[in-house]
Every structure is written in structure tokens, then in C-alpha cells.
Amino acid sequence: MNFRHIFFFVFIILAVNLQQSQASWLTDLKEKSEQTFQYVKNAALEVIEVGQKAADVAATARGDKH
């Protein structure tokens, strides 16, 4: 029974230490993924803007837009 308590205590200590060591790696991954998603979002917004301008030019050329 004491062996279970000791094993559990050692397991908890190892889990806490591993969590702290992995935290920096996960933080770096989170920052890089946020930067990537921000880049993709900005690129998509620019494409939408260019597409809207092209649609306006095409509508003006056809005479649909007043």
C-alpha cells in the first residue's frame, strides 16, 4: 500500500515537471500558428478586396453599376 502512495507521488512530480518543460514548446508553437493564421487571414481579406474591385470594374464596363 505504501508503494502505491510513493508511486503516485513520484508520478505527480514527474507530470508537473514534464508539463513545465513542455509549456515553452507549446507557447512557441501557439505563437507561430497565430502568426500563420494572421497571415492567411490578411491574405484572404486582400484577395476578397481585389475580387470586389474586379467585380466593380466588370459591372461598370457592362453598364450594370450606376
From TrEMBL:
Domain of life of the source: Eukaryota
Keyword field: Antibiotic, Antimicrobial, Immunity, Innate immunity, Secreted, Signal
Main localization of the protein described in the UniProt heading: secreted
Matching InterPro entries: CecC/Srx/CECD
Subcellular location: Secreted
GO biological process: antibacterial humoral response; defense response to Gram-negative bacterium; defense response to Gram-positive bacterium; innate immune response
Signal peptide: 1-23
Any single Gene Ontology cellular-component annotation: extracellular space
Recorded family membership: Belongs to the cecropin family.
Protein name: GG11742
